[in-house]
Amino acid sequence: MELLNLPKHVAIIMDGNGRWAKKRNLPRTAGHKAGASRVKEIIETSGNLGIKSLSLFAFSTENWKRPEKEIKNIMKLLEYYLKNNSDDLKDNGIRLNILGDLSKLSKSLQEEVNLALLKTENNDKMILNIGLNYGSQDEIFRAMKKTLEDFIDQGKDPLTISQEDFENHLDTKGQDMVDFLIRPSGEYRISNFLLYQCAYAEFWFSDILWPDFTKEKYMEALDEYSKRQRRFGGINV
């Protein structure tokens, strides 16, 4: 499949793991494991296609409301993924970037995150953003506070803060805004994911559950994006 118009920044809400497991009379943890195994293929495909940023929503600020056992299993999977795939990310030119506040995560997971960040910090083929304890409203609030703090510390007038100043304090600093947001699982909302960055994103929703979101389905979604005309508030000429 030849794609003539690829997005620079793709965001994916990886949803449907629990329902995938339930349909198979399996525990929810089995769904999360199946979903985690899908991640590597989508990252590899994105890098090979030349996409510059891929943002994956792994764990939200609201997900702490889930049962403690499920949260622990998700965190173990995240830690396992980073421990076993950070070298591949490094070798494939992919730079890891974390969206969210890591302070609530376990010490061991924070250590794996920081090690992977260090290993991949000089890569420039693609940026892989992973949302960990991430919520867009929280990100915007943190960015606003940090921008104000920096201006006050530097003796600058906060009333002179520019849009660029603010965007430089977002978790996606230096990256393009989201062009294309994908959400499998049959839900039609973006669930507090990259609200600012998705201002003019194209959306693609599907009933496919995340563990079944294959490379072929991903290519179908990208093919649909390539045929859309984006106007950014203007009109087609």
From TrEMBL:
Coiled coil: none
Binding-site list for Mg(2+): D15, E202
Residues forming the catalytic site: D15, N63
PROSITE patterns, A to Z: UPP_SYNTHASE
Cofactor: Mg(2+)
InterPro entries noted in UniProt: UPP_synth-like, UPP_synth-like_CS, UPP_synth-like_sf
Amino acids binding substrate: 16-20, 28, 32, 60-62, 64, 66, 183, 189-191
Listed GO MF terms: ditrans,polycis-polyprenyl diphosphate synthase [(2E,6E)-farnesyl diphosphate specific] activity; magnesium ion binding
Entry's EC annotation: 2.5.1.-
SUPFAM superfamilies documented for this protein: Undecaprenyl diphosphate synthase
Role description: Catalyzes the condensation of isopentenyl diphosphate (IPP) with allylic pyrophosphates generating different type of terpenoids.
Protein family: Belongs to the UPP synthase family.
Quaternary state and interactors: Homodimer.
Identification of the protein by name: Isoprenyl transferase
Taxonomic path: Bacteria, Bacillati, Bacillota, Tissierellia, Tissierellales
